[in-house]
Specification:
The chain is of the alpha/beta class. The protein folds into two domains: 3-175, Acetylglutamate kinase-like (Carbamate kinase), CATH 3.40.1160; 256-400, VC0802-like (2-Layer Sandwich), CATH 3.30.2130. 36% of the residues lie in helices and 27% in strands. It contains twelve helices and 18 strands. Strand 14 and strand 15 (303-311) form a beta hairpin. Bound molecules: adenosine-5'-diphosphate, aspartic acid and magnesium ion (MG).
């Protein structure tokens, strides 16, 4: 018997009618194909944000443990409602929270990692010919505490379940009909990709495309889960995320990602001597602040400037830490800018083509966009630019690399 895992995101289950629509789709699919169906759902759209705002009214910095207890309720509402809608259509269904499945995670509250999935309870319900409905985004520690997997975590629940159940396909249903060359909300000329490689999708997700949670792509690549992104509302093939094939190498660039959550800080006039980079970065990482790009200038006058980027939420804390280091190291001054964004081009085709970087920089220069920082890897080039240029930069690059179609 073939088994499909489906995931429906927040907007797909955002109202009672939309939940009924999903129920109808599932019943039609089961009747037409006979597949076993395991369905992962998100909280109704806006709920996770609403609860986060409520928590802020209680406490300025609520514990991650209590936040997990709170936020996991959003998905619990949806599983119950979807099961009711299925039963109303005469389809037997069973709902499971993460703890009831047993999706065991580590205890890093708010960004827990899945360690193990016990499939017996799900299997028993499938054997009874039920549609299984699982709350996304949540798990439970070995000690029984509720955890969540980070924003967008229902994608990861779906892929992890598909891997554990050896599903024939994992389908991520959402409000767009696939993965596009860039976010269609920023570039209306963006085109749907029929296929994208795991590697490229992982870069796109890491560089800011929130269409899939990073960990879901990591999981799918690692366990070779056939993964497809499709629309809940219109029929179509969607986008298949798969291993690289010959045809794919023809495209130079597959997509453009961007991240608005960036800030950059500089420690200027740092004495140029061994150990300085680690003296700067160690206290930052000890404060649990993740560093993204790092640039150190070539030293002049025995001093150098050291610049790096962090998440915008960590900007103030990072500046504070740098002020202390500045005094300790006898550096000149601390500078910062939290009105910057990162724009990246991604494509496996880059590996075998020269000149992509210069094409990118020329296209941006022609529009008068100043590049503040650059970072490259085998299949991506990222630039940091002023926030006000985000849309222009994305559209310019989209056009320049021929992604806009006819
Ligand atoms: P869900 O609630 O179903 O999980 P998300 O909001 O998390 O949906 O993801 C879908 C959104 O991702 C789309 O509405 C779109 O604006 C955005 N997005 C960002 N980058 C891309 C891309 N490259 N292709 C398609 N959608 C993208
Ligand atoms: N409800 C969670 C969120 O809004 C998880 C998800 O939708 O994937 O981030
Ligand atoms: Mg999502």
């Amino acid at each position: 018997m073939s088994l499909h895992v489906h995931k429906y995101g927040g907007t797909s289950v955002g109202t009672a009618e939309k939940i009924q629509n999903v129920a109808k789709k599932l019943v039609d699919e089961k009747n037409a194909t006979g597949h076993d169906l395991v369905v992962v759902v998100s909280a109704m759209s806006g709920e996770t944000n609403r609860m986060t705002d409520l928590a802020q009214l209680m406490q300025s910095a609520p514990s991650k443990k209590q936040m997990d207890v709170l936020l996991s309720t959003g998905e619990q509402v949806t599983i119950a409602l979807l099961c009711m809608a299925l039963e109303e259509l005469g389809q037997a269904a069973s709902s499971f929270t993460g703890g009831q499945v047993k999706i065991i995670t580590d205890n890093s509250h708010s960004k827990a990692r899945i360690e193990e999935i016990q499939t017996d309870n799900i299997q028993a319900a499938l054997n009874d010919n039920k549609i299984v409905v699982v709350a996304g985004f949540q798990g439970v520690t070995a000690e029984g505490a509720i955890t969540t997997l980070g924003r967008g975590g229902s994608d990861t629940t779906a892929v992890a379940l598909a891997a554990a159940l050896k599903a024939d396909e994992c389908r991520i249903y959402t409000d767009v009909d696939g993965v596009y060359t860039t976010d269609p909300r920023v570039e209306p000329k963006a085109q749907r990709l029929a296929k994208i490689t795991f590697e490229e999708m992982l870069e796109m997700a890491s560089l800011g495309s929130k269409i899939l949670q990073i960990r879901s792509v990591e999981f799918a690549g690692k366990y070779n889960v056939p993964l497809r992104v499709l629309s809940t509302f219109v029929d179509g093939e969607g986008t298949l995320i798969t291993y690289e094939d010959d045809e794919m190498e023809k495209a130079l660039i597959s997509g453009i990602a961007f991240n608005r959550d960036e800030a950059k800080v500089t420690l200027a006039g740092v004495p140029d001597m061994p150990g300085v980079a680690s003296a700067i970065l160690k206290p930052i990482s000890e404060a649990n602040i993740e560093i993204d790009m790092i640039v150190q200038n070539v030293a002049e006058d025995k001093t150098t400037d050291f610049t790096f980027t962090v998440h915008r939420n960590d900007y103030d804390k990072t500046l504070q830490i740098l002020q202390n280091i500045c005094a300790e190291l006898g550096a000149e001054k601390v500078d910062g800018d939290n009105k910057i964004v990162k724009v990246s081009i991604v494509g496996v085709g880059m590996r075998s083509h020269a000149g992509i970087a210069s094409q990118m920089f020329t296209a941006l220069a022609d529009e008068g966009i100043n590049i503040r920082m650059i970072s490259t890897s085998e299949i991506k080039i990222s630039v940091v630019v002023d926030e006000k240029y985000l849309e222009l930069a994305v559209r310019t690059l989209h056009e320049s690399f021929g992604l806009s179609g006819e």
